[in-house]
Amino acid sequence: MNEKHIDPVLVDGEPLRCIGCGAMIQTTDKTAPGYTPQSALDKGIETNEVYCQRCFRLRNYNEITPVGLTDDDFLNLLTQIQDANALIVYVVDIFDFNGSVIPGLHRFVGDNPVLLVGNKEDLLPSSLKRSKLQDWLRQRANEAGLRPIDVTLLSAKTNQSVDSLLAKIDKYRGNRDVYVVGVTNVGKSTLINQIIRQNTGVRDLITTSRFPGTTLDKIELPLDDDHVLVDTPGIIQNAQMAHFLTGKDLKIVTPQKPIKPKVYQLNDQQTLFLGGVARFDYDKGPKSGFTAYFENNLYIHRTKLANADDFRQRQLGQLLTPPQPENVADFPALVAHTFKTTAKSDLVFEGLGWITVPAGVNVTGWAPEGVGVLLRRAMI
């Protein structure tokens, strides 16, 4: 996977793997996946819990260490699914559905059945009917070329409805392995940890974090009939906001508790700043209500559109955070995406949230270059 040849640590003739991320353990290259100091390796072998240095730092200090993996590396790992006889458990983030779609996934799954899992159900308002949400997810999956055999909702973080998922896996997998797939940051490894805990009592075996790309290689867990459950590495989705933020800022923009929608009555030519990381302009239309769905602690500031550029320049890193003051110089400029709605719609900022807008208005969403901003059929 890297051009430099690195000899993995062997145990009984087989490569030793990090139980946190799946990378092959090695002691020679600090910049490559699976590196662990010899002293830590010796201790890990004694306790039968070997973690690479990257996972150790993530688990104990929430500190991420870059490693030399490319997008192609992750995609090459996923192509193994084409040759597998498996039930595909496709995990998406309900709160960031568009940012958690794997482009062209139907090319990887082949003839294997797909069970669609909407994670982070606990973040959405309880007033949203779950049956309606399941239908919405199925329709979006169909648009992406997938025909899931079923759709289930859960919260891996709170263990909500994980039992229901396990029952459906048993129902649909037949004489197959189970491959769990998803983009980074959808909560896939957290879900795997809940499954492990329910079956073995072991807690937090697999490394999880808010950072993209925590699982580096596939992790195989034995099932009770000589088949395996495989946690695949998260596909890097570069359109996600997480790639532009530090760990401190991710805590501000990543929802941890149920979202409390905020309604703004706006005249046209008004702007809403979403901290300093994104912006919403109401360009043209009658006075209307706009509902914002973002992390509750994200500061939203209303101002006049005519003043918006000057205001952001003066207040970025001050009133408008994130980014933090020390990160302002490195934060990219915002790019405009303009839309005219024909029906009630959501203007989505991938990895951040969305604003529900009425039909027949002109709006603009601003986000860092590369972060997806799109219009979709309203979820709520």
From TrEMBL:
Domain CP-type G: 75-238
Superkingdom of this protein's organism: Bacteria
Transmembrane segment boundaries: none
GO MF term list: GTP binding
Name of the protein described by the UniProt record: GTP-binding protein YqeH
Organism: Levilactobacillus namurensis DSM 19117
